[in-house]
Amino acid sequence: MTGAQASSLAMSAQRELRKSKRDACAPVGFERRLLVCPQTMTVFIRQLRLLLLGLWLGAAFFFGAAVAPALFDVLRGAGLENANELAGSIVTRLLAFINRSGFEVGLFVFVTGFFVHQGRSRLAQVAEMISVAIMAIMAGVNHWLIASRMAALRASMGSINTIAPADGRRIEFDYLHRYSVAAMGLGIVAGLFAFLVASRATNAAERKRD
Question: Is residue 10 scored above 60 in pLDDT?
């Protein structure tokens, strides 16, 4: 047998093996597919992780870049005396949702990351896990530490417009606001990096399966 013939036989055997794997995962009902083909659940989790990360990143970026500034501009433009207070209350509720969902999505992606790393380099695994951990930590700190303290200060001040800029509570509130923006920005950057790493690994895994 020549070298060319041996190579051709090896390629034919590989094609038959891939075909048998695809046939084993043929559509026979969603529940049965999960039982017959273990790879199906892994693929589903990988796609779900990307979907959740993408949704949170889009929501967080849109909130920070468009929603919050627009609320303050519209309410201030309406000439309301308590425009800042009203806008701040709305932004606080929306930010609570963004932070909680960021923590939950980050935790889900971090935990499932231990089960979908087959065939990936160690560097990519570590980079993704660290980025997701930073994203979840920033969201948690922003929600349970910074935002909660800001809410307590807001309650003690009443209407923030009546508080002098030199007041200690107002100064602390402004500092916490800057910390909140920085924490959210860092969480978005970390989440975006994790998304890019995870999407690249998912595409590579799909090409390898095909």
Answer: no
